[in-house]
Design brief:
With 271 residues, this protein is an alpha/beta fold. It has 2 domains: 16-118, Rossmann fold; 150-268, Rossmann fold. Helix content is 34%, strand content 19%. The chain has helices at residues 27-40, 60-67, 71-86, 101-110, 161-174, 204-214, 229-236, 251-260; strands spanning 16-19, 44-49, 92-97, 115-118, 134-136, 150-154, 178-184, 220-226, 242-246, 265-268. The chain has a 10-stranded mixed beta sheet with strand order 3-2-1-4-5-10-9-6-7-8, with helices on both faces. Helix 5 packs parallel to helix 6 (204-214) and helix 7 runs parallel beside helix 8 (251-260). The longest helix is centred in the first third of the chain and has 16 residues, at 71-86. It starts with 15 loop residues before the first strand and ends with a strand.
Length: 271
């Protein structure tokens, strides 16, 4: 058995799960996930998708092929060993999965994952209600020495509260600020600000106050952006470390948002 391959059921609850598709496109994804696991003090689980027939007898068949030098699992073992070496305090494990969103979510459910990290090719992988957040890392994020803010897109409904909590918790761990932005139009009036309709008060306002109370050390600002969320949110997040949104968007609109953003996008479902 490769040193760093782990059988299902042996992961610590609350792990950060990352999908490693191939060496050419997945390095930024894995690096982001490793940093997030380190900030959280959680285990990093690297999931390597391969052909359905390859994992039909997992773990016995997959591990036997790995011992014989099979390339997918050999790559995974080398990757996990390298991550463990680069991050001495980080617990890193690997697992082989079928290349389907269902297999990924079966894994995150089984290990009670805190977050699933995927590449841009999985921009249509949306979490369902009650599942863990999904972060899509597109690899275009610019490096910056100083902490960059976390931006969270909100609407006039309290369904965005989980996204607010995720954004503030991320900012707390990263010692940075939060930018709360609502993209609005005549069909979706703003929930706060000078153009906010007087009746009735949006449930977002007290919900935001409740979230802010839980993170007194995190500075934040409120902003309005007139226009479509799929255009305004990526534009306003050009200098952000992370863009956080709820899962209320249809898959096509979410793919558009992820494609336009230059920073990673966290999709947070309702509890």
């Amino acid at each position: 058995m490769p040193r760093h391959m782990t059988q299902p059921g042996r992961f610590a609850p609350g792990a950060v799960v990352v999908e490693f598709e191939d060496a050419r496109t997945s390095w930024p994804v894995v690096r982001w996930a490793a940093a997030e696991a380190g900030r959280r003090g959680r285990e990093l689980v690297v999931a390597r998708p391969t052909s359905p027939g390859f994992v039909s007898g997992y773990p016995e068949a997959a591990l036997a092929l790995a011992d014989s030098g099979d390339r997918p699992v050999w790559q995974l073992d080398r990757l996990v060993a390298g991550l463990a070496s680069q991050h001495p305090g980080l617990s890193v494990s690997g697992i082989v999965l079928e290349p389907t969103p269902a297999a990924l979510f079966e894994l995150v459910d089984a290990v009670e994952a805190a977050v699933l990290v995927v590449g841009p090719g999985r921009g249509n992988v949306l979490p369902s209600r009650g599942q863990c957040p999904v972060v899509v890392v597109n690899g275009r994020a610019r490096r910056c020495e100083s902490p960059r803010p976390v931006m969270v897109g909100v609407d006039a409904a309290d369904t965005c509260v989980p996204a607010l909590r995720f954004a503030f918790a991320f900012a707390h761990r990263d010692a940075t600020a939060v930018r709360v932005v609502q993209a609005w139009s005549r069909r979706t009036p703003p929930a706060f600000g000078p153009d906010c309709p007087p009746e009735p008060m949006s449930p977002l306002v007290p919900a935001l106050a409740d979230v802010v109370t839980g993170f007194p050390d995190v500075p934040f600002e409120l902003a309005l952006a007139q226009g479509r969320p799929t255009r305004q949110l990526p534009a306003r997040a050009s200098d952000a470390a992370l863009l956080v949104v709820g899962e209320r968007y249809a898959p096509r609109r979410m793919r558009s948002l992820v494609r336009k953003a230059v920073c990673p996008v966290a999709i947070v479902p309702r509890a």
